Amino acid sequence: MIFTSPQQRRLANRRLAPGLISAAVLALSACGGNNSTPPGAGNVALANGTSDSNGMTAAVSNIPTVGPISFDSASGLNVVPEGSYKVQLTTGNGSGGSQTFTVNNVSIDHNNTTTVFSYGTVAGKTINGFPAEISVNAPANGQFTVQTVHAAYAGSLVSPSINFYFVKPGAGISGTPAAVSFGTSPPSFALPSGTYEIIVTADLVKVYDSGPKGVILPPNNTNVVQIAALDAPGAPNGSPISLLMLDNDGGNTPLLNGAH
Q1: Is the preceding peptide bond at 68 cis, omega within 30 degrees of 0?
Q2: What are the extents of the domains in the chain?
Q3: What is the pLDDT of residues 27-47, one digit of tens each?
Q4: pTM assigned to the model
């Protein structure tokens, strides 16, 4: 099934593995914020950072195939039993066929969400992926939990590490950044809920700015987010990267340079 809008993706954001459907699971699915997973299970999602893919699908364990997911977007949350998995990703490319590759050691843990990020290009034969895992436990009142992720392959060739700043809109770069290396699952951290200008730097050079109006964080009815840097080929919005925000309600929101 193709999810073409955030609303459609949210409707499908809690797909369940066979054998896990129960009254308790259904109750969890209905909870705002989704700060837990069924006993013995965790969430898995797919984020497509492969710019020339014609939809990306993922196969893991005994859940239905996830996707196809278009570039710069993500699937909803899929509940699977705890364990370590090999996730098979397939990218469709029209008359050029498709390519399949495997992301190993994808850990699924109780009360956590693991997102598998694809990166690279089919044409450049650089497609691959990696997992980033975050706890969905509820933060303190008035706060949200955020994990920053570097999944911009082309950018990583120049800057293997980037810095995320969450600042008051219009205030400019200040404070201590969240530094993250490409292809890793960095620790999450808590911030007060509010409106932020998100700035990303690489080697002390600003490469992304969400804009002076600010981004409201977290999205409504959520309190845990992953914000990932993806390649933006050709810099269509004046930046070599774009950001994709995934939340613990199964939604995902592109954050383009200068658009907020």
Answers
A1: yes
A2: 6-255
A3: 333 333 489 999 999 999 999
A4: 0.87
